[in-house]
Queue: 4 jobs
Job 1
Amino acid sequence: MALRVSLSVALTGLIAAEQIGATEGIGYLVTLAQQYYRSDYMVLCVVVYAVLGLVIDLAIRGAEKASMPWRR
């Protein structure tokens, strides 16, 4: 449980850092979308971040089940 929470905080920090200092990537695309008022790109980036978060969470849940079979 703690690993899932810490990874979600780390992912949030990664997104914030990428939007501030990147010159390429999804964070940079979000910054450009804000500058040029492209809400379609913004929605796409939010969906990509959401899918990325879900995939990471599912991977961590699978690792928890494999490493700790006594927990439900």
Job 2
Amino acid sequence: MAELAARSSLEEVRQARLVLEPQLAALAARHATPRQHAALRAALRDGCAPGQSWRGFEGQDARLHREIAAAAGNLALLHLFDQLATLRRTLTWDRQRLRPGGPPPDHPSFAEHARIVGAIVEGDAEGASAAMAGHVGHVHRLIEAEPPRTAP
């Protein structure tokens, strides 16, 4: 994975996420069980907890996105998601932040995640897909606006 990360770009990760994650959200809207709905709500709640560090938020964000992928009910796609998530973390988690400390209470991902989970729980596959596509695009625009990574 480290070799792939060294040869990949954030743009490639964005493109891959836009291919995979909206479809996973749509499948989750079609196939998620009540137990998975509860897991999605818990991940959403924990991800929006105030006062968390960026690392804490990123961990909760990863948890929510993986819960969505698992709720899609397709083990092959879940495996692909896990590989893409590892690549995404490798490329993005050590970056500098425009706002140090942690996400602000009105961080846009909180509302975007709520729209995604809401659509999944309501069984709205089209809405879940559109919300996920919008979220992935917005996250990558925010990443591009941040200062470049510095060498350790």
Job 3
Amino acid sequence: MGALYVLPVLGLSERREEVQPPTADEKACEIFIEVEGQKEKIPLETYITGVVAAEMPVSFKKEALKAQAIAARTYALKTTNYGKKAIAPTVARQVFYDESQRKANWASNFLGNEKKIVEAINETKGQVLLYNNDLITAMFHSTSNGQTESAYGYSGNNIPYLQSVASISDQSSPKFEAEQEWSLVQWNKLWPIQWQASDFNRIQLFYNDSGRVERLQLGNNVWTGREVRTFLGIPSTDFSIVYNSNTRKVHVKTKGYGHGVGMSQYGAEAMANDGKTAAEILHYYYQDIEIKKIDACLK
């Protein structure tokens, strides 16, 4: 006689949460997001589940996850024009993990982690960030250097809701400081010019108001901080460069992780740990914005 297999009954706390299905009225106007590399378009809230799971540690407080959900939803709708254009699942846009990727990443913790993320999505369903009744460009990053970057400092464009604010608690982030080193041969492979050891004594770094490198000058050569970050593949534009003549190594120290504009994810977590709500977090990092629920039927 074969063995009798009984499927386990999940307790209430173990049951898998699902994004709340839209009502009949919502379904008639439901927004779908086309993600590059995915075979089918994805319902907006399902897509946001995959973004929050990819972009923010699931260990973070729910209010931080909710802030991330609202920012990610706003960014997605702005970038895709409410689902009319595709979006890449990359760091340059928004990273997205489908369900199979989340299962692989979380393994035995999948049900609990999924439940936590989906609760954050459901509790913010449809909420977006507006400035003058328009969707904002809800930029976010992992860790600031203690001060977020303004849109002007990043791109030269002054955007009222993307101003520099203090984010001192980011110093507790595991990504706050980093150091990398290269031999001079390795270093020269990364640049459009060839450096000599003596050149490191002639470097001039010009910093902006948020403490990030605005430009690096070496003789007649000038590069922006963003260009240097791209050349070197370093985490931030808050950097210093030192050449050690004894070891013949170039050392670059950085503070922060990411472009620094908009919401700091580790800053959001610190605020959530201090009892701040998602709304308070968002109003801090994005100035003079409103949080509203979209009416997809009007789009």
Job 4
Amino acid sequence: MTTAQSVILDVPDLAAAEAFYNALGVGDRIQLRESNEPTTGFRGYTLSLVVAQPNIVDAFVGAALAAGATALKPVKKSLWGYGGVVQAPDGSIWKIATSSKKNTGPTTRTIDSFVLLLGAEDVKASKQFYLDHGLEVSKSFGRKYVEFTSTAGNVTLALYGRRALAKDAGLAPEGTGSHRITITGASERFADPDGFAWESAA
């Protein structure tokens, strides 16, 4: 079974990005590669940290802002839980959220799951593409949302409509150029219908 093992972010300043992600507390979850490929607007994806309770959301968002991130959606309660969205200095979008509305334990920076959400122009077509490339579906809600099976410690890959994903991140859906992200875990290189690249894990 093909699974998303990790993500590689293309960043303009490698040292600065390493400092930011180490300060955020996800330096062991991602890989970084220096690149200045042109990109404008929404890059078509978001990275999500799903945590246990609101005080952990606050800890991650506070660390991100202190390290130079920009708030796109301030942390707040909603019908589904509690969370916020920030943009890293390299331009990538991070959502930190919990389904819990109350704190039941101490503040930590423990991540329950790490999710890569890809904005698909056609969720159904992208779902079939990934099935054909060896991924297995764990959740599916018609043409709106698809989540693929992941293994412990790896990235959970999901598909969401591009416009809906941009709205959820607090951005306009328009964007051009490089996605500036590569997914590892495939047996060979390929790109999906929306241009997201895969390569084999190192």
